[in-house]
Design goal:
5 helices; elongated; pyridoxine biosynthesis; nine-stranded antiparallel β-sheet; FMN; Pnp Oxidase, Chain A; 33% strand; EC 1.4.3.5
């Protein structure tokens, strides 16, 4: 059974994602762009954590992290990821699965430069995902970074963006009596056309 028309009256899933996120920005009290990002370790054990979605491109979703962190290493190793985003105020969620790779250095540089100074220094100071003996040690590392790098540090080589290029995108809207509206968009290749299919709730 092939569906040719979106139940959400959309012609492009990326545009629909932007529309839903825009609506959430007006209603969610905090971080409407927070996504639950899933990766998998070399043994096949999954990991999930919340990160902030920073860019929605024509053909991908971009977030930033420490490349040496657990998530950074798992993403680089598998080249695949998935995320879910949920807006309680709108009773909507979106699920995305696809391939992942690093964004271009210039793009990471530009985003890093837009962050506040504390966050830029923190990217240098934090050995993300590694054991930490105390808060004082972390704060000392931040101060050391400030003294060494000054007020305009370059982007650390171990920090930057990932781009998730979607292969499937599923939209979910709450319905009465748990008869929700679900629709999945998929394509066989990056250059291929998106196909949409309604799903049972």
């Amino acid at each position: 059974m092939t569906q040719t028309r979106s139940i959400f009256d959309a012609s492009d899933p990326m545009a629909l994602f932007r529309d839903w996120l825009s609506a959430a920005e007006a209603s969610e009290p905090n971080d409407p762009n927070a996504i639950a990002l899933a990766s998998v370790d070399p043994d096949g054990m999954p990991n999930v954590r919340i990160v902030l979605l920073k860019e929605i491109e024509e053909d991908g979703f971009v977030f930033y992290t420490n490349y040496d962190s657990t998530k950074g290493q798992e993403l680089a190793q598998s080249g695949k990821a998935a995320f879910a985003i949920h807006w309680k105020t709108l009773r909507r969620q979106i699920r995305v699965r696809g391939t992942v790779s690093r964004v271009e250095a210039a793009q990471s540089d530009a985003y890093y430069a837009s962050r506040d100074l504390g966050s830029r220094l923190g990217a240098w100071a934090s050995l993300q995902s590694r054991p930490l003996d105390s808060r004082e040690t972390l704060e000392a590392r931040v101060e050391e970074a400030r003294n060494t790098l000054g007020d305009n540090p370059d982007r650390p080589p171990h920090w930057g963006g990932f781009r998730l290029r979607p292969e499937t995108i599923e939209f979910w809207a709450d319905g009465a009596h748990r008869l929700h509206d679900r629709e999945v968009w998929s394509r066989e290749s990056r250059a291929g056309d998106w196909r949409t299919q309604r799903l049972f709730p």
